[in-house]
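Progress report, Aim 2. The chain analyzed during this reporting quarter is listed below.
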Amino acid sequence: MCGILAVLGCADDSQAKRAHVLELSRRLKHRGPDWSGMHQVGDCYLSHQRLAIIDPASGDQPLYNEDKSIAVTVNGEIYNHEQLRAQLSSHTFRTGSDCEVIAHLYEEHGENFVDMLDGVFSFVLLDTRDHSFIAARDAIGVTPLYIGWGIDGSVWISSEMKGLNDDCEHFEIFPPGHLYSSKEGGFKRWYNPPWFSEAIPSVPYDSLALRKAFEKAVIKRLMTDVPFGVLLSGGLDSSLVAAVAVRHLAGTKAAKRWGTKLHSFCVGLEGSPDLKAAKEVANYLGTVHHEFHFSVQDGIDAIEDVIYHTETYDVTTIRASTPMFLMSRKIKSLGVKMVISGEGSDEIFGGYLYFHKAPNKEELHHETCHKIKALHQYDCLRANKSTSAWGLEARVPFLDKEFINEAMSIDPEWKMIRPDLGRIEKWVLRKAFDDEEEPFLPKHILYRQKEQFSDGVGYSWIDGLKAHAESNVTDKMMSNAKFIYTHNTPITKEAYCYRMIFERFFPQNSAILTVPGGPSVACSTAKAVEWDAQWSGNLDPSGRAALGVHLSAYEQEHVLPTIAAGTSKTPRMIKVVAPGVAIES
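Predicted structure tokens for the chain:
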């Protein structure tokens, strides 16, 4: 993932202003260490920090049309760029970059082309013919983007908050699936899929159609001119990503360049059950597997860097981002620049523990819709910024537009967790890949129960974080928290600790408002807390609050013979908080 920064209409075209924009752009250099570019037209500046994945030799940005009257700075990947180039045969392309099609599509279609792009992206396009500009963000918000307004009338757009927070009177998250037009002076939503209205779908479950849609999503993401791999935790989602990638890698351009052996990566505390599970899957699939270890102290020492890069004070996000941040540095040191990851499956299929309590298919469907719409503030933010901190790109096939449309069109009755019918969480996804003749995964892996949403990687991670917070935040500090932090008041010492660090880096009120809050149990929305009366007294964002759900759903119905690795008296609960990252509690 690259870094983009645009400053538009600042009424200052001086060398000093250019130097200032360049200085701010360097704050994003971790996202794109391969090249820096700047295009200035009067008082409009487009800057770019490049991570070269496609066409490393000639795809430097900003990108242009034939006469350079249109310039664009882009962060993302356009998977259908070859098909779009074929439709633009009358145009002359300067590079092999997948993103160059954006400039030429604008020439042909004006502002109404964004839905033609199949990929993930954030971009700013400047039309020097009338000094207008547009900016857009991908459908789900896989790529991060912020927008701000200066007191001088300028508009600022940046991949990360740190690129604009010191220069804007107000800034906010650029909403996913939207386009900002200077001509219209505001946003309009370009992404309007059928599921967005949250109407209850009625399409019967078609396991083959779902499987084909996911395979297609993974194959698209094998588009690369640099070394790559997969994040593999041993859980269902990352294992399916790896299995599909292994099956289809051989015939790709990437295989011709880098070989047919897929590399997989996992991180955990020494002896973590996650490391064992990932290794089992890797051995079955025949990947070149890389296992990384870290200590609790390593994680604690990284917390400030994690908060600076992820730009959040959300407790669950920071807990999960830390091991991913540490793993990404190790992966990049091996020369790998892109990984494929498994985010989004739990939101689409209702895979979290609390979905056991969904009262009916209508409530379940509404909750999955809300979860997908909020992904840009949670898992997408974590996956993108934790990896981009080290110049590593993460791709997420479960959040492919076509796949989401397929999965969200299924009658949600099929997603309901029904132990009486043998349907565990994400049953529709498991069943789609249950191939007797050519198994994608062994059955015990494919039907491994959804593991406990825990609070760190390995047994002692969460305890270490809490102990660290306890030693840094006093009871007196907590008693005054509601007066100091009036918005999203921290209710635990761990949350207070993260909030202090966050506001040291990002003290503006606009920054504070970019982080979501509200009651949650096991990562639910506030609405889903109402599904169980007991939850309102135990508002914990981790899955620990829903532990009883996890145990009873499987012990009482005997859907699976084993709860988890360990003794029958003390089952160990493992939750994959990120592909390649799992937690024991």
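Confidence is low (pLDDT under 50) at residues 452-456, 550-575. The chain is about 35% helix and 15% strand. These observations will guide the mutagenesis work planned for the next reporting period.
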